[in-house]
Write a structure and sequence with these properties.
379 residues; alpha+beta; Alpha-Beta Plaits; 2 domains; 4-stranded antiparallel β-sheet; 12 strands; binds alpha-D-galactopyranose
Amino acid sequence: MSTDSHAADLAATAEDVFRAQFGASPEGAWAAPGRVNLIGEHTDYNDGFVMPFALPYYTVAAAAKAESWELFSSSGDGQTVRFATLDGARGWAAYAAGVAWAMNEAGYAVGPARIALHSDVPTGASLSSSAALEGAVLLALAGLYGHDIPVEEAAVICQRAENDYVGMPCGILDQSASLMCEEGRAMFMDCRDLSREQVPFNVEDHGLVMLVIDTNAPHRLVDSEYAARRADCERAAELLGVRSLRDAPADAHLDDERLNRRLRHVLSENRRVLRTVEILKGGSVAGIGELLTASHASLRGDYEVSSPELDSAVDAALGAGALGARMTGGGFGGSAIALVEAAAAPKVEAAVKEAAKAAGLPVPRVFTARAAAGAHRVR
Ligand code: GLA
């Protein structure tokens, strides 16, 4: 199914939900996808390199201007969330209210709206369901209130919503991916200035598939450990006298053993992203497998953000012949990816599930990902 027809189907449902909840028609529907990060993990807040692609799963916001805020999510608890002012929204509504707040802060004045959200982005799976929600709401409010926001600024506004309203100190990866990725491409981005290059990424043309393995493991300690990694990186940069770890020399070393491992991950991961870009531009996809696997080893050993579920998935996929495999996203649960020959996909999927069962872990959900279109107005 093409991205367009899939997003259109979701939008039709979102519009139905809107009419059922609010007894009127929306003025439009805007979609933003979840993402997989191919490589470049925990580099974004170090001004480093990332390489996400958009998943063909979207959050759609069907919306209309209104007298006060009324939000409804088809995956919520069935209640419409209503508020007169933008402070104090909780749960999923905080992501939407946060975007409106951050738009106002950035000088893009938006008034209240009715918004019905409908999504098939997996939640709690490190696939950026939050960024999809933020992106869809931002496009909807910009559309309703007549703002043409440069996409880089839009990403920063969504990140600000999450950092300063929701309170999650995330980097710029997820929001940029959801807003800027393009169909059939992986997006190589420099997080220092958000400059980017869309690199062709059609694994099927190479007889390969990209499996996403959602471990079904609850995220654990995500927020506190994430903040702790960021703090380690900031301290390491301070000790080295550089603006951010991206600027550390290749042979930089710190006496503090833990900080040195964090440094080693960021430096080596940035190199792996650059090498991945070279290999893809050289026309090979299979050739990036080893880099994916090396990225996982570094995240597991040096950065310490993996989990037993993610390690089990990666090890089992590699054991069953995957060309490469790694965790994707923040870690501590969520999803892994595995690059496999198309013919080997069933065997790899079976091995991953078997390994989880044998270890007494939740059985993962496995699906095939292709690079889909980024956020856009559907109707
Ligand atoms: C989460 C954050 C991103 C990024 C990744 C790790 O997804 O939201 O900003 O830091 O973790 O690469």
